[in-house]
Amino acid sequence: MKPVYGVREMLSLCAAVLWLSAASAQSYPSKPVRVIVPFPPAGGTDLFARAVAQKLFAVLGQQVVVDNRSGAGGMIGSELVARAMPDGYTLLITSSSTHSINPHLARKPLYDPLRDFAPVVVIASAPNVLVVHPSLPVRTVKELIALAKTRPGQINYASNGSGTLSHLTGELFKLQAGINMVHIPYKGGPPAVIDLMAGQVSALFAAFPTVFGQVRAGKLRALAVSGAKRASAAPNLPTVADTLPGFESSQWWGMFAPAATPTGIVGRLNAEIGKFLGDADVRERFSADGAEPVGGSPLDFAAYLKADYEKWGKVVKETGIRPE
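and the corresponding structure tokens:
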């Protein structure tokens, strides 16, 4: 026979759970913390992770070790954390590709990004910038859309590769603008930029550091940024959303813990990271990659992740995108 709990017993149980969670947060951490980065060293995610690890070491008083576990587009390292003990000693710092995009592209996803992780905090976010070759007779997003409608299938756009955020951003742009542009995938951003400067392709959604030197030199023309608001790196550039209301595409980086990690530990990590994300040295370090610190609560992150995951899932389904 199952026990029947009254209101008083349930309140006592909830209080006990909250007390244990708070107690675990007060004693945490008592040993080194491992942060898994599911990509190779020296990439953008790795740089953000090492900046956070350095700051956390200073406030937690324990070593915070960055462990690069790359493979399968970041899914191998992410799965490792999803299956880890939920005690706060194995964490994940990753990008939106492993949690918003790749699970929609994998034949057999290794984890559920919404179910298998406890979101801790959004560390940083960076929009792409829409750039075109100067020979293209457009200076605004509105003019690009108008030109594409008069030349259906005749204007192409490059991406960093099939299934990348650069590619999906281009497809989202096509869907919302109601235009037909031909996708030309490349193996990474640099070769795409080289062919764009040579006039082999007409447009590209690219990360700021990849193209802004060429924009300043007049070799490429920037039309807009893909984020929900203007970017501090280019405050004079409008957003795509100024022309296509609701358009938004940003790369984000965040910290996750395994699901069922005590809320006290998640809250402690969130609070400590939130404090130093506003530091001038952190902002300066992130801005070198065209990114800005974000922060916010774990609940904010969970809601944002769900919306981002569903948005890109819809784009993948409607366009039939598959990785090369």
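(Above: one complete record from the training split.) The mean pLDDT is 92.
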